[in-house]
Amino acid sequence: MKCPYCSYEESKVIDSRPTDEGERIRRRRECLKCGKRFTTYEIIETVPVIVIKKDGSREAFDRDKLLRGLLRACEKRPVPLNLLEEAVDDIQNTLQNTLDREVSSSRIGEYAMEKLKSIDEVAYVRFASVYRQFKDINTFMEELTRIMKNK
Q: Quick check: keyword Repressor in the entry (predicted)?
């Protein structure tokens, strides 16, 4: 495992413990060159899910990209990181458990909005405004009205 500080390729494992109900292994490592410590996660390799983007191009599902999008929507909001990681885990599990190996980016966006709606309404509206590409203030108000009716 390459050290993120000095790029040396050898480290020793100091501690290992399961996380996420045994789905991943968290390992604390120490670089054998610079002595700094870092954390790695080991997960089971699965069949990749291919995302079909709006322009028709295809790319492998990227868990980190989804998490970054949720983090951006939750910027300066009182949302704990672990809630967003759980949401991404749930979405990823949903995608892995379907028989489809290809999924549209719009479906992933809908899953993300569904999760954000229950976590933080402001983050939900932020995400929806980018995802649904609100054209003007009226589109934005329609979404807010829909949220208010569902309360």
A: yes
> Is the per-residue pLDDT at 149 higher than 80?
no
Q: Name the token pair of 54.
A: 């709006």
Strand spans (E) along the chain = 11-19, 24-31, 37-43, 50-52, 58-60, 102-104
Domain limits of the chain? 11-43, 50-149
Q: How far is CA 76 from the centre of its chain?
A: 18
Residue 116 has pLDDT above 70, yes or no: yes
The secondary structure of residue 35, as a DSSP letter, is -
Separation of alpha carbons 99 and 27, rounded Å: 32
* C-alpha to C-alpha distance for 19 and 87, rounded to whole angstroms: 15
C-beta separation of 53 from 61 below 8 A: no
Between 137 and 51, residue with greater pLDDT: 51
